[in-house]
Each structure stands twice: as C-alpha cells, then as structure tokens.
Amino acid sequence: MNCEFKNLMKIVLYYMLFGIFWIFYSAKFIYLLTKDPSTYIVLEHYKSYLYIFITTLLLYKMIKSSYLKIEESNKKFQQDIVQSFITALEFHDKYTKGHSDSVAFFSVKIGKELGLKGHNLDDLYWAATMHDIGKIIIPVEILNKPGKLTDKEYKIIKDHPRIGYEIVSKNDSLKKVSKYILHHHEHWDGNGYPEGLKGDEIPLLSQIISVADSWHAMTSKRAYKNKLTHEEAIEELKKNKGIQFSPEIINIFFDVLSSN
C-alpha cells in the first residue's frame, strides 16, 4: 500500500508541475512550435485543448508505468508465496524435491512449442509449479511409504488434485489456474481422475502438465521404484500415447527432448 501511495503522489506531483509550467510558459512553448503569426494565433486560441491533450497523454503514460511496477511487485510477491508452499511441500514429501521446478520447466518448453504466449504461458507455469500442492495435507507416511500402497492409501493419494484445486481456487489471482491443477491426472482415454475427462475435454494446459509430470516421475528415483533411463521412459510415453497422454503433446514433447 505504501508503494502504491508513493506512485500516486508522484503522478499528482508531475501533473501539478506540468500545470504550473503550462501557465507560465505555454506561450513560449507555442512560439517554439511555430513562428508563423496566423498559426500562432490559432494555437494560442486552442491552447487549452492542447493542454488537455498533452496532460491526458502524460497522465496515461504515468499511470501505465505505475501500474506495470505494481503488477511486477505483486507478481514477485505471489511467486515468493508459491515458492514457500513448494518448499513446505518438499519438506513434507522428500521425493518431490525439485519435481515442481522440473515439471514447470518442461511444461513451459512444450507450451512454447505449441505457440502459447503471455498469460497462457504464465498460467501454465503457475499450474505446473503448483500441480502437487494438494499433497501438502496428505499424511507423510503415505507419501513416503517405501512399499506398495493399499487401495485406501492410493485413494487418498488420488485426492491431491482436488485438494490442490480447493487450495489454489481460494486465491483470486490464481483461481483461473486451479482447474489445470484439478485435471492434471486425467487420461486421454477417459480412465484418469478425478472426473474421468476424455480427449480434448481435458484442458490443454492439464494435458501438457500430465506429460511433463509423468516424465519426471519416471526418470526420478522413488522409495518404491528405481528410475527409468531416458530410453525406457520414452518407450513408456510411446506405449501410452493416445491412452494416458495426448498424442499431439507427446509428439511435441519428443521434439523438446531432441532439441535439448
């Protein structure tokens, strides 16, 4: 709030200084624009309109500049909050350390290959970064269990997209990305969760996160499994193309891998 007040006061000050300048120096300013007497008379006659035009333009530029600074400050604050949540999750679940960053990295790479830009790319980054945030309230003994999960434990794990959705949707600035978190475990053939969406019913950003998430999970060591080699993981993705994963996203992801 203090920063916003300072920016507002700066705009008021500049606006006031320009007004003083115009009162005392507008005649000289018009004379600099033209030395033709008839043109000078016309400009002098309409100088109040010229003042309105110039000050409106000046005010617009100052407000826009101030807004961009505030937006950048808010974005940094938001990023710090999200990172704090991710750090807390990594303390809670030791196997997710670095997972969120990797999923966000590959998701954005895929998004750029698809031609996503601006807010769409930002939404993808945030959703990918927070896709597992729902695990923060799942018991640690389930998350870090070295053996096979029971049906009951697996059901609890499957709740994490919905929990993540509930957490993130409460934040006004992040609410729009919550649905991508909700659907990142949907399968192309409709056999995923939590809602059993099929094909392009699944939001595009969720399709992207699904591939990036699975890739990092397969190529990382877990207590209950060894990591796959890149070649083995690629074969798994190929095997599940059109079943678990969007064929288009898989093809683009292979392009991303080959270019790295």
Give the radius of gyration: 27 Å
Number of domains: 2
Which class best fits the helix and strand makeup? mainly alpha
> Any idea what the CATH architecture of the largest domain is?
Orthogonal Bundle
Largest sheet: none
CATH fold label of the largest domain? Hypothetical protein af1432
Low-confidence stretches: none
The best one-word shape is elongated
Helix content: 55-70%
Query: By CATH's scheme, which homologous superfamily of the largest domain applies?
Result: Hypothetical protein af1432
Instruction: Give the overall pLDDT as a whole number.
Output: 82
The share of residues in extended strands comes to under 5%
The CATH class of the largest domain is identified as Mainly Alpha
Q: Secondary-structure element sequence? A: HHHHHHHHHHHH
What is the terminal separation in angstroms?
Answer: 43 Å
Number of strands: 0
Number of H- or I-type helical stretches: 12
Describe this entry's structure for a reader:
The protein has 260 residues and is an all-alpha fold. The protein is 68% helix and 0% strand. It folds into 2 domains: 1-92, no CATH class; 94-260, Hypothetical protein af1432 (Orthogonal Bundle). The radius of gyration is 27 Å and the shape is elongated. The chain starts with a helix and ends with a helix.
How do the helices and strands line up, and which of them pair or pack?
Layout lengths: L1 H32 L3 H9 L1 H46 L6 H16 L3 H12 L10 H4 L7 H7 L2 H9 L9 H5 L21 H15 L11 H10 L7 H13 L1
Helix pairs in contact: 1-3, 4-5, 4-10, 4-12, 5-10
